User: What shape does this take?
Amino acid sequence: MKGRYSPPPKSSPPKQSQPKDGNALWRIPAWFPNLPSDVGLKLKAFHFELLKFNAKLNLISKGTERDADETHFADCILFAEILMKIPGAPTRYDIGSGNGFPGLVLAIMDPKQEYVLVDSDVRKGEFLKHCVSRLELKNVRVITSRFEELTTTGMEFAISRGVASISKNLLSFNKIFSRGGQFVHMKGSSWSKEIAELPSQLISIWTPSLLGEYTFPVSQARRAVVLTQKT
Assistant: This one.
């Protein structure tokens, strides 16, 4: 199942330099030729900032720097194409968004939707704020806090990329979500095992479903988008 990409309105892209790491690849234009040029430039600017600050903040593992365009950017673009088909919540929360994935990529591709990036690490929160300013994103807020400690009640929509298992996420954040709230999980090929291992008390409250799957352009790694909705 693949989502259909809807181009955002054009705006002036930020100017940028090439990343200093000459070994880092940038193949997004070849993989996604239909991305509007301003979206592509903002994604590339984010790539530059990510590599620039990674040595100090450990945003991504060193082993993924060279292929971050696939491991992180292509992953989130393909995820966005599925997620953007889901209507609803005026505000979408990205849990543990310290490196900006998927929140910043979603905000670049979906400028009419408000995203709130939440991370407990103060330095990573500052990195996110820097990127929001650098990329001139008007649809993003950054909150430096543990997600469980947010004063927000009646959460309607949240996203998790590799923070924890589906069971652990639901147990940790269950009280924050309102009835009908949607919690979307970015998962690998073992997603069905995580669903099968959900305890009965969660199954009675949350209904899981598969929104879609996609494959990385080079490594052919498979990913799944799993929705859990509070009943």
Observations:
- The chain has eight helices and seven strands.
- The first helix runs from residue 28 to 31.
- The two ends are 25 Å apart (CA to CA).
- The first strand starts at residue 91 and ends at 95.
